[in-house]
Design brief:
By secondary structure, this protein is of the alpha+beta class. It is built from six helices and five strands. The structure holds FE2/S2 (inorganic) cluster (2 copies). One FE2/S2 (inorganic) cluster binds next to loops.
């Protein structure tokens, strides 16, 4: 019998009806209609399903919903502030860092988590941090450029030092 679980997603409380071992991704997509997180491999290998759990990038396809009831979950739908896009969303648009865009939400969520702890990264560090996210369209170079742009835009000290 399914269990009732409470979740907090994008700052909103939800009560869902699912077994504790149901994947967070399927709950987000099928019960909460938050379809920005994508199903790619379903095995934690591609990053298309990446969300933030307490601010850290996690693969929602291999996260059991029963393990995140006390945590803050953020999906791509929760990044913008009203009409104002998150700096990473803006940077991805400015760099045209997507083709089919299937990987994009996972890329952005991974980058949000990375920049939180690495606000002024090198190109090599950005490239390394995004290696676990697969883009079949070959847009990795533009993705790296977008993350660097967001770091610069969102970090006044980087701008001031001309980096
Ligand atoms: S769908 Fe989750 S890592 Fe591929
Ligand atoms: S833009 Fe198509 S998979 Fe990345």
């Amino acid at each position: 019998m399914a269990q009732v679980t409470k979740l907090t997603v994008n700052g909103r409380p939800y009560t869902i009806d699912a077994d504790a071992d149901t994947s967070l991704l399927s709950v987000l997509r099928d019960q909460l209609d938050l379809i920005g997180s994508k199903y790619g491999c379903g095995e934690g290998q591609c990053g298309a399903c990446t969300v933030l759990i307490d601010g850290n990038a996690r693969r929602s396809c291999i996260t059991q919903v029963g393990s995140v009831g006390q945590k803050q979950i953020t999906t791509i739908e929760g990044l913008a502030q009203g009409d104002r896009l998150h700096p990473l969303q803006e940077a991805f648009l400015e760099e045209a860092a997507m083709q089919c865009a299937y990987c994009t939400s996972g890329m952005i969520m991974t980058a949000v988590s990375f920049l939180r702890t690495n606000p002024n990264p090198s190109a090599a560090a950005v490239s390394h941090s995004m290696e676990g996210n697969i883009c079949r369209c070959g847009t990795h170079p533009r993705i790296v450029a977008a993350v660097l742009r967001a770091a610069k835009n969102g970090n006044p000290s980087a701008k001031e030092s001309g980096q």
